[in-house]
Amino acid sequence: MPLVPVSVLLKEAAAEGYAVGAFNCNNMEIVQAIVAAAEAEKAPVIMQASQGAIKYAGVDYIAAMVRVAARGARVPVALHLDHGTSFDQVVRCLVAGFSSVMIDGSHLPLEQNIALTRQVVSAARPVGVSVEAELGRIGGVEDDIAVTDREAFFTDPDEARYFVEQTGVDSLAVAIGTAHGRYKGEPRLDFDRLSRIKELVSVPLVLHGASGVPDEAIREAIGRGVRKINIDTNIREAFVGAARRKLDENPQEIDPRKILGPAREAAIEVIREKMRVFGCSGKVRG
Ligand SMILES: [Zn+2]
């Protein structure tokens, strides 16, 4: 199947009340794990390239790997840029064949965030690529992007409505108490704020930093309008954990396939578990 825009997947998710998982693809094994999990669960899936993945593998390698994975897949696959940093980077991803992009202007003053997001929408929409933006600041560390607790702040519902009206974005990432990376304690999500944003905003909402959020809180967030959920840290933990166990068992091993193969299997399992929690399992018929 050709790559599908995220907006198409989220529209179906909104109609049926579930969320689609967006998983960071950092290397070939993880790309294969994401597709294998989606096929096993009969779930639509979003693969996303973080800033760190782009630095590590390059936009063209990621796009080529995901296109190959999608071509042979029996489920719809989207390729999405995560936390796009500039208009230029978005254009590079459009040229490379991404089906969706995020532009993250959340560090900018509101009107500048609006101007940048509008510019991206005007480039992406004519070529059928959907756009996610962020309002409020999600805390934590993800690859090159670090937001301290002092810099993080929650999304203002009225501002969210204004932002979506002004930009015409397809989906909106909200800051309601999740953070990128590992949590120190249990995260507490501001569900009232989420519901208020949902009331005022017409587009699907996106939850970043969902690794480590308890399943019950995830389900609650989906019930209140979240349609895309980003997972990275849980995959890293499963992947590297399995590779480490393999090396501990056999420190003499020199075949990378015997280390990365089990890591890939561990990633498949954790992704499948997430898909069941998100409610997207079994949504691809036929
Ligand atoms: Zn994020």
From TrEMBL:
Zn(2+) 1 binds at H83, H180, H208. Zn(2+) 2 binds at D104, E134. Its cofactor is Zn(2+). Keywords: Lyase, Metal-binding, Zinc. PANTHER family: D-TAGATOSE-1,6-BISPHOSPHATE ALDOLASE, D-TAGATOSE-1,6-BISPHOSPHATE ALDOLASE SUBUNIT GATY-RELATED. Binds 2 Zn(2+) ions per subunit. One is catalytic and the other provides a structural contribution. InterPro entries: Aldolase_TIM (IPR013785), Class_II_FBP_aldolase (IPR050246), FBA_II (IPR000771), Fruc_bis_ald_class-2 (IPR011289). Dihydroxyacetone phosphate binds at G181, G209, A210, S211, N230, I231, D232, T233. This is Fructose-bisphosphate aldolase, class II. The active site is at D82. GO terms for molecular function: fructose-bisphosphate aldolase activity; zinc ion binding. GO terms for biological process: fructose 1,6-bisphosphate metabolic process; glycolytic process.
